[in-house]
Specification:
Layout (H helix, E strand, L loop, with lengths): L11 E7 L10 E4 L4 E3 L1 H5 L8 H19 L10 E8 L2 H5 L1 H15 L2 E8 L20 E5 L3 H14 L3 E5 L21 E3 L10 H16 L3 E3 L4 H9 L13 H15 L4 E3 L7 H11 L3 H4 L12 E2 L2 E2 L6 H12 L19 H4 L9 H19 L6 H15 L3 H26 L4 H5 L6
Parallel strand pairs: 1-2, 1-4, 4-5, 6-7, 6-9, 9-10
Antiparallel strand pairs: 3-8, 11-12
Helix pairs in contact: 2-6, 4-8, 5-9, 6-8, 9-11, 11-13, 11-15, 13-15, 14-15
């Protein structure tokens, strides 16, 4: 066996996923499918369609193995990449060993996570679970599915697309919110992710994009839809890929480069065509929110959640709030302000962004203003400035190079893509200027960015 070209430079992680009663080989980390991978009965029931096949369950297991590897294996202190060798038991082993499936799977994961991946598919010794419920029937022909979380973009874009195509849009629940979960008496299709994975140790979690795309594709396969809608607006698609920090690998979780490769993999796996669409790709988040507010009650937007911080880190007197200063919260607050939508300051731990310091901005009874919290706050504000900096004329070369890559995925010219990218970044920059002027020159956010830009 030839040595891997990555072996001398990155940590090698060997993982064996095992059926019940089986053991991992010597020197391998065990991912016990009977313990670390848990099917959620109510969630699995919401995938109960007549077209259910073992490949759908296998796809969940493969996605779970990838999630376990990514989340349980710390990245190196000096560098980014890891190399994974994973053995996975599947039922349709010939399908998973197909050269086109293996090559496109490793290609999409390497692009998405920045790691090297190698898979060994073996025959499962247990039967593939079948959703234990009556077959769900859809009353309407399904045109598209949308991965649906508790965030602003999900709420707004599902509302906008649903306004156009009605019941032909199906929402695939990706968040943890209890609303929308099925019951035995009144079940809805795709009402939650049908499995959970027990893993911890690595926070970057770049494989999350693969998990969401795979679950959405399974749903699309079961209801015979060919379109998967990505709800992100321009800042969420291009910002993480273009405005990277330190040694971190570019984040492509909602990017056309990732979905293009995912489309190829899914076509090889399911033997049918899917396409990912970006209805708000060339709009800012604020523009999307403003358009949604014209056709729907904006109060639904206020009930969404953008912050990823846990209740332990982001609670005030026992009430879980959004932190208000991470990158997701800062973009949320900028966008709502630009869209003219007001929020209760108590939505956030850091209630007052007009304040001269982070300490003063936080709720008086907040007790977790740690060094890590401060670091996330600073990084959150800097991300807004870094994305805005991409609109400067000196960055046109960077945008042109990125446009070359994106244009092919979107089937449009490089010049048109470059112009669209430059335009939407300029509008983000203008929204940021208005936001900073609204906060005032004494705001700690303004001072962290070097003063008001307007």
């Amino acid at each position: 066996m030839n040595a891997s070209p990555f072996a001398a430079r990155v940590p090698l992680v060997r993982i064996d996923a095992t059926d019940a009663g089986a053991t991992a080989r010597c020197g391998r980390t065990r991912f016990d499918l009977s313990r670390d991978f848990r099917l959620v009965p109510a969630g699995l029931e919401s995938y109960a369609f007549a077209s259910w096949q073992p490949v759908h369950y296998d796809a969940m297991v493969v996605a779970a193995c990838i999630e376990f590897a990514d989340r349980s294996s710390a990245r190196p202190r000096h560098g980014w990449a890891r190399e994974f060798q994973i053995r996975v038991p599947v039922h349709d082993v010939e399908r998973w060993r197909d050269r086109s499936v293996v090559s496109t799977l490793t290609a999409v994961l390497q692009h998405l996570t920045g790691d090297a991946w190698k898979f060994d598919f073996v025959r499962s010794r247990t039967g593939a679970p079948i959703p234990d419920a009556e077959v769900l029937a859809l009353q309407f022909e399904t045109k598209a599915v949308i991965p649906f979380s508790d965030g602003l973009d999900s709420c707004a874009v599902a509302g906008l697309v649903g306004h156009d195509i009605g019941n032909r849009l199906l929402r695939v629940r990706m968040g943890s919110k209890a609303i929308g979960r099925p019951t035995r008496r009144d079940r809805e299709p795709f009402a939650q992710v049908p499995y959970s994975v027990r893993a911890e140790g690595e926070a970057s979690a770049r494989s999350r994009g693969f998990k969401f795309a795979m679950i959405a594709a399974i749903a699309a396969s079961l209801c015979d839809a060919d379109e998967i809608i990505i709800a992100e607006s321009a800042q969420g698609v291009f910002g993480p890929a273009l405005a990277t920090t330190a040694h971190a690998y570019a984040d492509y979780r909602s990017h056309p480069l990732f979905t293009s490769k995912m489309t190829t993999f899914l076509g090889s796996l399911f033997k049918r065509s899917f396409r990912f669409s970006f209805p708000r790709l060339w709009h800012t988040k604020a523009e999307t929110l403003r358009e949604y507010a014209r056709i729907a009650n904006e109060s639904a937007l206020r009930s969404t959640r953008s912050c990823w911080m846990s209740q332990r880190l982001s609670s005030v007197e026992g009430v879980h709030r959004q932190c208000g200063v991470c990158a997701a919260c800062m973009l949320r607050r900028l966008s709502l302000q630009a869209a003219g939508i007001a929020e209760d300051p108590r939505t956030y731990v850091c209630e007052n962004l007009h304040a001269p310091s982070l300490d003063v901005s936080a709720a008086p009874t907040f007790r977790h203003l740690t060094k890590a919290f401060r670091a996330y706050a600073f990084a959150g504000s800097q991300h807004l400035f870094q994305v805005a900096a991409l609109a400067h004329p000196s960055m046109r070369g960077t945008l042109a190079r990125h446009a070359v890559l994106v244009a092919e995925c979107l089937d449009q010219s490089c010049d048109a893509t470059k112009d669209l990218l430059a335009s939407v970044l300029e509008r983000h920059c203008a929204e940021l200027d208005c936001f900073l002027n609204h906060l005032g020159p004494q705001s700690f956010v303004n001072r962290w960015g070097g003063g008001s830009r307007g």
